[in-house]
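SAMPLE LOG
Freezer: B-3
Tube label: C17
Construct: single chain, 230 aa
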Amino acid sequence: MNINLKVSATDPDCGVNAVVNYTLGDGFEQLREFKVRSDTGEICISSTLDFETRNAFEFPVIATDRGGLSTTAMVKIQVTDVNDNRPVFYPPEYNVSLRDGGASSSATSPVVVVSATDADSGKFGSVNYRIVAGNEGGLFRIDRTTGEIFVNRPHQLSTRSQPSHRLNISATDGGNLKSLKDAEVFISVIDSTQKPPIFDQARYVFAVMENVKKDFVVGHVKAAVINNGE
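STRUCTURE (predicted):
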């Protein structure tokens, strides 16, 4: 139990009436984070503090002598932030498909955006991103502050030389704490002549009763790849 501070009161009486006991004021007896030692006035931490949950406390402390006379002092405690959280990626994996030869990408438009959050406040909650693996040849780049990933040289995307890429992205907060787990970005390079699948209708509407069981099939959607007008 760590001691934060100490309150003190003196009594001009002599003998037993000069002995002072300290207690938390009315309504604060159940305060979880702090307690006061009745004989010394030392205010001690009794539960974990978290700046992000609550950053200030204010409560009265009563000093009472053996004759029943008392006085009250207000105590205010300011909790200062420490860098106690690491960045966490969500989602941890990303998938994207790019057409070879740069047909579906450019050096100025992001192909995917990774995101990590940090539960700390202020500068400790800021996040910077970095590609730490999988970027041989510098084909990709990442914006350190936004997490946007770009293709540096779209014309070098090729299904023949390298049809897939896997990038590992790390996140570091303003206090230099690094994410425990990197994000993974899986990039597939597809033939520029390949056509995307097309749904058989643009909109689907289904009705379902509120009391159906889990895994009940609500409806079906269907898409197919159509080549050469077939």
